Amino acid sequence: MKDSDFKDLLSAIDEFKLIRAGKLKPSRVFHFEPIQVKQIRRKLHVSQVKFANLIGVSAATLRNWEQGRTFPEGAARALLMVAAKRPDAILEALHV
After folding, report:
1. Prediction pTM value
2. CB atoms within 10 A of CB 84
3. Using CB atoms within 10 A of its CB, is residue 57 exposed (0-12), middle (13-18) or buried (19+)?
């Protein structure tokens, strides 16, 4: 690692500490609305196990999403957003 890169890294760590302590505001903040997985599943009128199989995740993962312990990311998040707006399209596309 170059000295300049290492110094940049140390500077970033110091900046993080100040932000964490509330002494400095972050340069940007990202807010994501949580996806209401349980409501989406209920719109489709399917059980947790069937819905998990339908979207290609484990039933345990789905339960964690529904209970807010973890959150869907990437392709799963995109699929759930489509399911929220067009549940009929999901059922048709996945031949349920």
Report:
1. 0.65
2. 15
3. middle
